[in-house]
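Q: Structure tokens for this one, please.
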Amino acid sequence: MRSVDDKADIYEQRRYELKRICINNGFQAAMIDSPENLRYYTGFTGGEAMFIIMPDDNVSNNRGKDGITVSGKNDNNNSNNKNNVNNDNDINSNNNKMVILNENIQKAIREKGMCIITDSRYYEQVEKESPDVPLVRLDNKTYIEVICAVLSYYNTDNIINEMNSCNLNGNDCYVNRDENSIITVAIEDSMKLSRYLKLKDTLKGCDLIVAGEKLNKPRMVKDDTELSLIKRAETIGDEAFTYILSIIKPGMTEREIAIELEFFMKRKGASKLSFDTIVASGRNSSMPHAQVTDKVIENGDFVTMDFGCVYEGYCSDMTRTIAVGKPTDEMKKVYQIVLDANLFALEGIKAGVKCSDIDALARDHIRNKGYGDYFGHGLGHSVGLFIHEEPRFSPKCDTITEKNMVITDEPGIYLPGKFGVRIEDLVVVKEDGYELLSHSPKELIVI
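A: Here is the predicted structure, written as tokens:
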């Protein structure tokens, strides 16, 4: 397991891995704009920025004052020599309408091979949270203009070391003068289509490659710091479940239960919810992702509660189904089938196993009991900075589990118009088994 005490070292290690991914896949640069990956690779929690990273050998040391053609005015002010400039402008323009990164920012990008681009709402936050990453301030420019300026500092042996002027008001923009020399830039699957199309239309010297799976891959295996935060988030969920059992009763509504769960988790230190809380009772529980309603809890209802919180950026997730009033024999039978499926899957979780094989442990049991048609979703998903990460326990996922992946085990049976049952645990994959993070009881609870 990766274990680093210094936060700066953690991010440095992660960026080193990202550079290795770029080199191994032929990417000369990568652009990151998802909140989760911004946080993972830089520590910046604001969520709205563009992180650009270039393997060190690919950053030119003699770009001088090359720039990008945009509208602007002449401003040759420079600031003190440091990565994150606190005065004057990071971006200047000359009389030829060339956007120029000031000399200190040029130097920082050349030395670090990376930068964060953002607007004035986040300047101070970036400086505090990501002090080792050069900050490029948007000021009155657009992301497209500044991205183009940053990428102009890219250099390889087969690219002429001067860039062609470009016009962002309709004409093409070449990051290099030789149109046959293409810079391959990895982008995330989650990039907005409008931004992708604008970049694609503007950066004719770049080949934008959608590579989210590769860029996200390091997040599959959690380090010590990540595991401790996920454990704390899941502990808050366990405490919330204990609390809700003490107050739930017939006459309450689904919405009232959801509010109680959410307020309790925030009171215990959660910054927000991992996802919209699900409280589904009676017939509503046959819908796996039912919306919370004002339905009143009645005697004889199953109540399925699927909830989680975010603690210092990391998510938790758990589901429990309880009975309010005496359950029917059918309800008890279905509940036991789901519980057994959950336990069978747990027994198969360890490093080195195909994810689809673990899914099959639960799915085959439910099918053999005659309810295969009523378990339609995958058995589980990974959890981390985002609530649904890769890999997944599903029939279609052939990823091999690795030590310190964090993933859910959540079989269910849903009988339309009658009721549904889901039981979900959060586990850490270990070499010879698993570590259970959710400790709330799973035997049928009757209130």
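A few notes: The longest helix spans residues 224-247. Confidence is low (pLDDT under 50) at residues 1-5, 58-89, 93-98, 155-177.
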